[in-house]
Amino acid sequence: MKIGLMQFKPGSSVRSRKLPKDIKMLRDAVKKRGHKPKVLRVDKCQLYYTRTRPKLLYLGRPFPKVDVIIPRFTALENVALKASIVHQIEMLKMPIIQSYDSLVRAKNKLRTLQLLTEKSIPVPKTMVVNRFEFLDEAIRKMKKFPIIIKSPFGSLGKGVAIVESRRSLHSAFDMLLTSSDFNSLLIQEYVAESEGKDIRVFIIDGKVVASMERDSGGRDFRSNLALGGKGRMVRLSKEEEAISLAAAKALNLKIAGVDLLRSKDGPVIMEVNCNPGLIGITDVSGLDIAGMIVDYAVKYRKSLDEPLS
Question: 93, 258, 292, 296: which has the fewest Cβ within 10 Å?
Answer without folding.
Answer: 93
